[in-house]
Amino acid sequence: MRERITAVLLRARYAAMGAAIGAGIGGLFSRNAASTGGAIGGLVGATVAETRGTLEGTLEEVKERDPRSKSVDTE
């Protein structure tokens, strides 16, 4: 349950940062562009967070399956 909440909060944080950056860039042009930039930035931020979470899980699986990552006792 804790991992799930952490993933949701990470996605929200990235979406908020993306929205702020998008709105800031759009605000340089007009109010409408700020609104659109914020929306697009939020989507991009959420997508980045989701991709990052998926990649971390995939990398852990690969490390578990990789025979080179296991320690070998040489006694």
From TrEMBL:
Residues 55-75 are annotated as: Disordered. This is Glycine zipper 2TM domain-containing protein. Keywords: Membrane, Transmembrane, Transmembrane helix. The chain crosses the membrane at residues 12-30. Residues 60-75 have a biased composition (Basic and acidic residues). It comes from the Archaea.
